[in-house]
Amino acid sequence: MNDGRPRRLALSLVAMKKGDHLFLVDGSGFIFRAFHAIPPLNRKSDGLPVNAVSGFCNMLWKLLTDARDTSVGVTPTHFAVIFDYSSKTFRNELYDLYKANRTAPPEDLIPQFGLIRHATRAFNLPCIEKEGYEADDLIATYARMAEAAGADVTIVSSDKDLMQLVTANVSMYDSMKDKQISIPEVVEKWGVTPDKMIDLQAMTGDSTDNVPGIPGIGPKTAAQLLEEFGDLDTLLARASEIKQQKRRENIIANADLARLSRELVTLKVDTPIDVPVENFHLEPQDGPKLIAFLKAMEFTTLTRRVAAATETDADAVAPANVPVEWRAQARGPDLDKGEASSPTPSRASASAESAEDAAQSFIAAGKTPTEDAATAQSLAQARAQAFSTSEIDHSSYQTIRDLAALDAFIALARETGIVAFDTETTSLDAMQAELVGFSLAVADNAQDPTGTSIKAAYVPLIHKSGVGDLLGGGLVENQISTRDALDRLKDLLEDTSVLKVAQNLKYDYLVMKRHGITVQGFDDTMLMSYVVDAGAGTHGMDALSERWLNHKPIAYKDVAGSGKSMVTFDYVDIDRATAYAAEDADVTLRLWQVLKPRLAASRLSSVYERLERPLVPVLAHMEERGISIDRQILSRLSGELAQGAAALEDEIHKLAGETFNIGSPKQLGDILFGRMGLPGASKTKTGQWSTSAQVLEDLATAGHELPRKIVDWRQLTKLKSTYTDALPGFVHPETKRVHTSYALAATTTGRLSSSDPNLQNIPVRTAEGRKIRTAFVSTPGHKLVSADYSQIELRVLAHVADIPQLRQAFADGIDIHAMTASEMFGVPVEGMASVIRRRAKAINFGIIYGISAFGLANQLSIERSEAGDYIKKYFERFPGIRDYMEQTKAFARENGYVETIFGRRAHYPDIRSSNPSLRAFNERAAINAPIQGSAADVIRRAMVKMEPALEEAGLAERARMLLQVHDELIFEVEDADVERTIPLVVSVMENAAMPALDMKVPLKVDARAAHNWDEAH
């Protein structure tokens, strides 16, 4: 139930006392705030969703870092993180409908519950939960125990349910808003003191928790009644005195509901506890332990921060072995112990014998059905049922150690026409990984015509004995040489008549490409899943296997070890390697059998075949090519940034009238608000002045010079550490180029993402940021060509919303922002003030992302009412946009997804959530997805068409596509061919939607050539 490490228990002898300060973190609240605040994020190595883990770790690290600043007032002496054990508690016995309206957590969140508990322990913090009780009850109990001992308590949460605990010695802290919640803040928010919050909640109820309350009584009415009658019991006893007839009758009729609701909302301050509060003594973070966890999660940025703060050599720390709990142990709020989520619809309904009968011929043939929806759905259901109940037999796997056995398996693959293929290597970096072996799997139709009997084999190539040269490390006997094996494999992988099936094929494609083999005729199960379920689940093999096959694959750590004992795959025992590798191929083939008919059943085959599958080799070739960088430019820029930051430091010190540590929030706050008395001051939970980026931006926008200089200083120091200092470390030792890695299935909308390094995130809004692009250069005799779509998302909006004014403006080549300003503000385009155009531009782009009046007001530094008037007027001038938004939300609510103009689906299941903020977030995302997703589809189509067009023009070897960055493609072109290449590239990009779609507005591409990326852009 909790963390009971011996060294923490030893501290239980030290009683809590006056002067101590206990921090109690609402861990469950942290989880959901992190999950919904952080965009979808998957661990690169296996696709595991980790956005909530990332947000949780960063929030916790910041909280600990801020709290330990001894220069700021209060620091915690004791610290614990409290979690809900499950959604079932004693309150369900009082009222069986309590929280009955809650749905299961999103699928992407389920495996993260357990990971977050591991994270808490990695931070050297108590991880507390108790079956039958909510986290709030534990927080209430510990808070009262600490208060009774004379200590102060800070509850890190913004949950109103906890406000009943606030006293002179117990406060709350909203870490997201950096806001202290004490007695005055509760009164300001709810109109009652904390001691009356229980009665107020009993009257108002809570739709989120299904607490009934008194129907029709809101917070304001409840506060007025409590002010008049004092408390709930007095109110109910004297209800006949209420003057308003309907209110009087309503309260009398629902008195019992109010009393029940009071029991439900009252937190237990006597919860049985397993760990004494004294055991929460705050210990220092264990650098190696925390870094080991962060490296296992692949959180590189936070790893660097922790390493610096704890003075730990991160390179010397191996990733921890962190188990992933997908079902029974993945406990969390609203997730019953032992349950994961509701059954997959197709699996639940696939038991009908008619479905099996209708699909039998397709199963036996191993082919996909036609696009007939009923037949395809029957097959999809039958396949899901068959493979969810079939067993995977590891003992049947074959280890192929000679060419005769390999030839026999390849012949079997040719006979069946479908083979699953997977590589085992020494690294996740496909550009540097050594090929250790490969696995193959085919359906054994002779054994079982349904296709559920699979023959799988592993071919070891360079497995070694011992660990390292000192222990031998020589090749194990009876392995086929890599050259001989690949000579046999080449014909199979390049034969288009045999379908190769892989999971995340781009990696295997690139590995084989480096060995002279170009895989042709393939399917990718990861991309199939992505097309059908983008936004509704993750697409890594392990997740798909558990979801569709009811099988948990062997974990890599189980064969290669973990932590310091981890070895690369070439040192794994061959028998264990066979079980692991052959299973990968086996599972992949089974997933293909399940997912292929789902494409047809969902009418998404064309999306997969035209937007996803063809992009695999295109991206692999781009990654293989890489791009050159000039280290000297980066070195010089690093020096310039350092000098610029130093110059700004001098200016800042002169403006401040004293020397101080600019990186110290306390010292900075004391100068800005304490001594200089600048407006907009607010304090953090510890009593220091807030100097957040938003606070400084607001002051800078208002014309204050010192905050502007500080903002500039922060930008320069970030550019230096994140880009100019880091990029040289990504240069490949052999090619001397930077090879980014593209992820096809990482976003809900279809946009690509890149990593190691992330070249899509290089800042270009400032002069210093743009200079970084000057370091990306062409090789001698070549130029870089940048081709960029102009305002593509606004053009897509004009198309999908069918806005006549916008369509006409784009057709006429008019400045769209000036036109919008003219339409809205009644000013002529000629001689228009730049500030007017800037406001129209902010609205144009803001509308695409569902900007609010608050957001627009901040962006334009105007009053919120004025921003609201702008948005209102915008919709009045362009009513089709509001119609589009409302229609899109209605479609998403009905179907759970939205579609791009090319049919790609983005799922937003939480758009029906009862949580208003979550629902609003999903509505905004659903509005934006068809626009952003359509733009992403356009550039995908352009990339797929580009290489054949260059080939046909005889330019394939002299004009090579290197990078895709949002709406931009970057090529490296021989000097003599630049003039021929640019018109071709522009034509392909501008006509990318054709012939599938004739857009109502023309696409416009700007293209230029130069020796570096910045000049070409």
UniProtKB/TrEMBL annotation:
Enzyme Commission number(s): 2.7.7.7
Pfam families listed in its UniProt record: 5_3_exonuc, 5_3_exonuc_N, DNA_pol_A, DNA_pol_A_exo1
Family: Belongs to the DNA polymerase type-A family.
UniProt cross-references to PANTHER family, sorted A to Z: DNA POLYMERASE I, DNA POLYMERASE NU
Broad EC category: transferase
5'-3' exonuclease domain ranges (all copies): 20-283
SUBUNIT field: Single-chain monomer with multiple functions.
SUPFAM superfamilies xref list: 5' to 3' exonuclease, C-terminal subdomain (SSF47807), DNA/RNA polymerases (SSF56672), PIN domain-like (SSF88723), Ribonuclease H-like (SSF53098)
Sequence ranges assigned to domain DNA-directed DNA polymerase family A palm in this UniProt record: 769-977
Region (Disordered): 325-359
GO MF annotation terms: DNA-directed DNA polymerase activity
Name of protein: DNA polymerase I
Function: In addition to polymerase activity, this DNA polymerase exhibits 3'-5' and 5'-3' exonuclease activity.
Keywords: DNA damage, DNA repair, DNA replication, DNA-binding, DNA-directed DNA polymerase, Exonuclease, Hydrolase, Nuclease, Nucleotidyltransferase, Transferase
Ranges of residues in domain Exonuclease: 417-601
Catalytic activities: DNA(n) + a 2'-deoxyribonucleoside 5'-triphosphate = DNA(n+1) + diphosphate
InterPro entries tied to this protein: 3'-5'_exonuclease_dom, 5-3_exonucl_a-hlix_arch_N, 5-3_exonuclease, 5-3_exonuclease_C_sf, DNA-dir_DNA_pol_A_CS, DNA-dir_DNA_pol_A_palm_dom, DNA/RNA_pol_sf, DNA_polI_H3TH
Bias (Low complexity) ranges: 340-359
